[in-house]
Design brief:
Distance between the termini: 24 Å
Number of strands: 6
Helix content: 40-55%
Strand order of the largest sheet: 1-2-3-4-5-6
Order of helices and strands: EEEHEHEHHEH
Largest sheet: 6 strands, mixed
Number of helices: 5
Strand content: 15-25%
Shape: globular
Length: about 140
């Protein structure tokens, strides 16, 4: 298990799944470091299934969301090739509303959700359906 003041990561060998929970903070440099830590932990455990709980994390800026969608996810694809990552994001109702209210955040989500990019991503409000989706592939 990995733990920091902003992030916890736990590998579930029974499900071959990484569970990532953000606890706080969204400083740009820490945000990027946390995402790189997620990738390193996934590689260490050899898993491509990631449940990423961002319900407690503050909303990202459009720049941070664009970085995750366009830079970090490309790094994930390159690092895991030829395997395909499967990421289930857990979001809060307030984050869902923020996504609906922000054209810039909507654009990042649409880019990140394109299956032609070499990974699968879905957004959920409940952990049960998210886990079921992760295990379905």
């Amino acid at each position: 298990m990995y733990s920091s003041p902003t992030l916890t990561i736990q590998y579930r060998p029974d499900l071959d799944m990484l569970t990532v929970r953000w606890l706080d903070s969204l400083q740009p440099e820490q945000y990027r470091q946390d995402y790189h830590t997620i990738l390193a932990e996934a590689l260490a455990h050899g898993t491509t299934r990631w449940l990423i709980d961002i319900r407690r994390r503050p909303h990202p800026s459009p720049d941070m969301a664009a970085w995750a969608a366009n830079v970090w996810l490309a790094e994930v694809v390159a690092a895991l090739a030829p395997r395909r990552a499967r990421l289930a994001y857990l979001i809060s109702p307030s984050r869902e509303q923020a996504l609906q209210d922000s054209p810039a955040l909507q654009a990042s989500v649409q880019q990140a959700s394109d299956p032609r990019r070499g990974y699968d991503v879905a957004i959920f409000n409940d952990e049960g359906p998210a886990t079921h989706w992760l295990l379905a592939a």
